[in-house]
């Protein structure tokens, strides 16, 4: 777990940089709230497009090989982005294309990494293991967000993209030292076509997995889409510039880190389904409170609160999905999670559109309210979820 956490930390510094630089670059190129939503949607769209394949591929081959390949691929794309900025050829459509490529590799990487955690710690430690890795992920994103804000301000986007590539490279080097396949790695692996076929059969018979996919999609559509508004809040509401955006994004990840640490500290516990429903409700409440952010300090406080709930619910979704299927099909389960978060483009486009039409504050209230209502309805209508 130590080597995996180090690799995750380095890779997620690059992800934190992305959160800052993508929104900043789009606003500089277009000054459009809708285009900010489109770029973030482009980054998330591959989750839906390749989620099933990513899960099946992860079940088929060594997770360590897949992680290394995708990390190095993201480094190459980051270098391409730096080169395009340096020669003055990075248009908004070029940014969208390269962002889409990063999203494709990220979908495969995230699927393989989370399944590999289970390989290392087994079923009893699955949720805690994912929480530990998620903490390393959030810590890296905090560093990346702060670095992104300051690098954009003092050195410009070319250096920022180069630093992003360097962090991916360091993560790729660390991944080479993952020596253990993991005691829980399946000894028998299904073929790719068989795995995909069995996935659709499982959706018809495994109601718990289907419920968790739907819950993941709802959280992604009406919850995690709030990240689109951070560049808009920083520029148009708080007027704090790129450094302020970096700080705001960093505290988003601080909240996430606190959330996953708290979840890991609880240990193996009963009532996970009820806790998940409660977290989703508080997730929506946090977004609604964000709409009242009139100062930087208020924004930081409400962003942290919102992302404590977001990260905790995310870890629970991942852990419960892997526990809902046989051992040899856990890649498929995480592919299901990837498909669930593949609903992000819908959420990011709609929140960007609402923000452009009536303002970011109203869009936060609308999305937070919808998340609360859907979580309550799902909890009331899903006895299996409440009994987890």
Topology at a glance:
Layout: H1 2-30, H2 33-60, H3 63-86, H4 92-121, H5 126-154, H6 157-175, H7 192-205, H8 207-222, H9 229-237, H10 241-266, H11 272-290, H12 296-323, H13 330-341, H14 344-358, H15 360-381, H16 383-386
Helix pairs in contact: 1-2, 1-4, 1-5, 1-6, 1-10, 2-4, 2-7, 2-13, 2-14, 3-4, 3-6, 4-5, 4-13, 5-6, 5-10, 5-12, 8-12, 8-13, 8-14, 8-15, 9-10, 10-12, 11-12, 11-15, 12-13, 14-15
Radius of gyration using CA atoms only: 19 Å
Biggest pleated sheet: none
**Cα shape:** globular
Sketch the topology as an H/E string, one letter per element.
HHHHHHHHHHHHHHHH
Gap between N and C termini: 27 Å
Class from secondary-structure proportions: mainly alpha
So what's the oligomer here? single chain
β-strand percent reads: under 5%
Low-confidence stretches: none
Number of helix segments?
16
Provide the helix percentage.
Answer: over 70%
Short description:
By secondary structure, the chain is mostly helical. The protein contains 16 helices and no strands.
What labels would you give this structure?
mainly alpha; 16 helices; 84% helix; globular
Describe this structure in words.
The chain is mostly helical. Helices cover 84% and strands 0% of the residues. The protein has 16 helices and no strands. The chain has helices at 2-30, 33-60, 63-86, 92-121, 126-154, 157-175, 192-205, 207-222, 229-237, 241-266, 272-290, 296-323, 330-341, 344-358, 360-381, 383-386. 60% of the residues are buried. The mean pLDDT is 82.
């Amino acid at each position: 777990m130590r080597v995996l956490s180090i690799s995750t930390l380095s890779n997620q510094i690059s992800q934190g940089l992305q959160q800052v630089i993508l929104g900043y670059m789009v606003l500089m190129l277009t000054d459009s709230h809708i285009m900010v939503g489109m770029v973030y949607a482009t980054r998330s769209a591959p989750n839906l497009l390749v989620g099933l394949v990513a899960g099946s591929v992860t079940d088929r081959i060594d997770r360590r090989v897949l992680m290394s390949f995708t990390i190095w691929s993201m480094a190459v794309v980051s270098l391409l982005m730096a080169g395009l900025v340096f020669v003055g050829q990075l248009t908004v459509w070029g940014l969208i294309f390269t962002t889409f490529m990063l999203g494709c590799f990220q979908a495969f990487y995230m699927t393989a990494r989370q399944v590999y955690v289970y390989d290392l710690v087994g079923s009893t430690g699955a949720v805690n293991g994912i929480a530990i890795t998620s903490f390393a992920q959030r810590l890296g994103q905090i560093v990346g967000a702060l670095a992104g804000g300051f690098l954009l301000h003092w050195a410009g986007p070319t250096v920022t993209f180069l630093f992003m590539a360097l962090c991916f490279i360091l993560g790729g080097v660390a991944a080479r030292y993952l020596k253990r396949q993991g005691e829980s790695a399946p000894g028998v692996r299904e073929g790719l076509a068989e795995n995909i076929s069995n996935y659709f059969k499982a959706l018809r018979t495994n109601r718990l997995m289907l419920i968790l996919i739907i819950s993941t999609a709802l959280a992604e559509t009406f919850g995690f889409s709030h990240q689109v508004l951070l560049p808009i809040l920083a520029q148009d509401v708080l007027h704090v510039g790129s450094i302020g955006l970096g700080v705001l994004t960093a505290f988003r990840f601080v909240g996430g880190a606190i959330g996953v640490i708290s979840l890991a500290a609880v240990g193996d516990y009963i009532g996970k389904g009820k806790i998940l429903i409660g977290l989703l409700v508080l997730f929506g409440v946090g977004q609604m409170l964000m709409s009242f952010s009139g100062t930087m300090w208020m924004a930081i406080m409400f962003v942290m609160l919102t992302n404590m709930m977001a990260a905790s619910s995310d870890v629970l979704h991942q852990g419960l999905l892997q526990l809902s299927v046989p051992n040899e099909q856990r890649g498929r389960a995480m592919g299901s999670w990837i498909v669930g978060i593949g609903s992000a483009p819908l959420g990011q486009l709609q929140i960007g559109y609402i923000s452009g039409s009536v303002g970011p504050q109203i869009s936060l209230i609308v999305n937070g309210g919808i998340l609360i209502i859907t979580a309550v309805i799902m909890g009331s209508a899903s006895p299996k979820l409440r009994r987890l």
